[in-house]
Specification:
Layout: H1 6-19, H2 22-25, H3 33-46, E1 50-55, H4 77-83, E2 87-93, H5 101-125, E3 130-132, H6 136-144, E4 148-155, H7 165-172, E5 175-179, H8 207-219, E6 222-224, H9 230-239, E7 245-246, H10 263-272, E8 275-279, H11 282-285, H12 287-307, H13 315-319, H14 323-339, H15 341-348, H16 357-371, E9 376-379, H17 398-406, H18 411-437
Parallel strand pairs: 1-2, 2-4, 3-4, 4-5, 5-6, 7-8, 8-9
Length: about 450
């Protein structure tokens, strides 16, 4: 490691300051557009950018097709490099199924497949480009080595089944956060989707869910509030001995959907010391704006699809497809959507603007004012439906930093939101785990 003599550097700095008083005194509002761009690029290069929610398809983790290639996926290594995204949390997601032994077995098989895929990327396919991090120290070490960083989160505790020992197993396999439900009630927790029909399974957490919370605290897995019901989330925060996170949720006051956190949950999260990772999911950011844009966009896509003899399916019909059929469907749909980009830009976005980075950062502004900057982070939900105009894949990550700079956030504040706050929670969760394991 180089040993730096800081006295000459300091003298040089003050000499430059004397020559050009604008070096530190100009605020972004006083800079030219070109100066703001360069200033933001500097910040983006220096801070560690971390996105807490990126879904995966294990068909993209093979020898033939993998993240070393610039795939159509919103996240892969070339796009991370292009956009300056340093840390991607790859998600072991399992859709909610039957609460039976057969359902639990299928859920575990799915989770096992995704764990293996992530390890395969880091250990076999691209160990020279990306490494799995288990701690905040790992993140900083790998970043300093010039490699990209993978971390693992679990979306839906369904694969735990009725076997609580799987919490420790998932920790050992690299999982560092887990939510107890997704869309549909799990054996552990009610889901936010219960708001649709007011039908609840547990009225919060199940007894097993409460045991899982204690087990997550014991081993150092962050508790994730994104997707469970409000009652379950409030109970999790009361039970947890460590700070919690919401890995991909925004502010319900700004946009009233059940996947966003209302002010009561936000204030409790603040007291808990946790962090909400604001999510760039169009319909969570601004439902009305997204609906208007989507309606006109879909008209163009459906017209092109009809010309090509391709049927655009409803969500229900898509879910009914087999795995290979679904992959083929989405591949073709993406091709049609991509071919429509120019028409959408000219015919749709000029009359019904899309939800964009500015709308997304409006949620960040609200959360910062409501609960304090140290409790706010950033996520995309890429490859799981996330993305906004201007940040629609990892290659456009810089645009978020640029918008934050334009809003007047400092480099230190931007660094905290991009990674510092989340890594602080991870440190605290792991410190609590050590205390519990030591019997303190």
């Amino acid at each position: 490691m180089k040993r730096l003599n800081f006295l000459p550097l300091a003298l040089l700095f003050f000499a430059l300051m004397a020559c050009d008083s604008t070096v530190s005194t100009k605020s972004p509002r006083e800079m030219t557009e070109e100066e703001v761009m360069e200033y933001a690029k500097g910040i983006h290069e220096r801070v560690i950018t971390l996105d807490t929610h990126n879904d995966i398809n294990t068909s993209n983790f093979t020898e033939e097709t993998n993240y070393t290639q610039r795939l159509s996926s919103q996240v892969n290594l070339p796009k991370m490099v292009e956009g300056g995204l340093d840390v991607a949390w790859f998600i072991v997601y399992t859709g909610q199924g039957a609460l039976t032994e057969e359902g639990f077995a299928r859920a575990y098989e799915n989770a096992d497949d995704k764990f293996k895929a992530i390890h395969r990327l880091c250990e076999e396919l691209a160990p020279d480009q990306i490494e799995l991090a288990l701690t905040s120290d790992d993140v900083r070490r790998i970043n300093a080595a010039g490699k990209k960083i993978a971390m693992i989160g679990i979306e839906n505790g369904y694969p735990v089944g009725n076997d609580i020992s799987r919490v420790k197993e998932f920790y050992d396999r690299g999982a560092r956060y887990m939510s107890l439900a997704h869309n549909g009630h799990s054996q552990l927790s009610d889901s936010n989707t219960g708001e649709r029909d007011s039908v609840w399974l547990h009225n919060g957490l199940s007894d097993l869910g409460r045991e899982v919370i204690a087990e997550m605290n014991k081993w150092g897995i962050m508790i994730d509030l994104s997707h469970p019901s409000k009652v379950a989330n409030m109970e999790m925060m009361r039970l947890s001995k460590a700070p919690v996170i919401a890995s991909h949720s925004s502010a319900r006051t700004m946009n009233d959907v059940s996947r966003n956190l209302d002010d009561e949950q936000l204030m409790m999260l603040k007291e808990n010391g946790g962090v909400v990772q604001t999510v760039a999911f169009k319909s969570y950011v601004n439902t009305d704006k997204n609906r208007a844009n989507s309606q006109k966009t879909n008209e163009i896509i459906e017209a092109i699809a009809k010309e090509q003899g391709f049927e655009v399916l409803s969500r229900a019909d898509m879910r009914a497809l087999g795995r290979e059929e679904r992959q083929a469907y989405f591949q073709k749909y993406r091709e049609i959507r991509d071919s429509a980009k120019d028409r959408i830009e000219k015919e749709v976005n000029t009359v019904a603007p899309p939800v964009d980075v500015s709308d997304f950062v409006d949620h960040i502004d609200y959360l910062v004012k409501k609960i304090g900057l140290e409790h706010v982070g950033i996520s995309s939900d890429f490859d799981g439906g996330g993305g906004v105009y201007g940040w629609n894949d990892a290659s456009e990550t810089f645009n978020v930093t640029l918008e934050l700079v334009k809003r007047g956030y400092t480099e230190e504040q931007i660094g905290l939101m991009w990674s510092g706050n989340l890594l602080r929670v991870l440190d605290e969760v792991q410190a609590v785990a050590k205390q519990i394991q030591a019997g303190e």
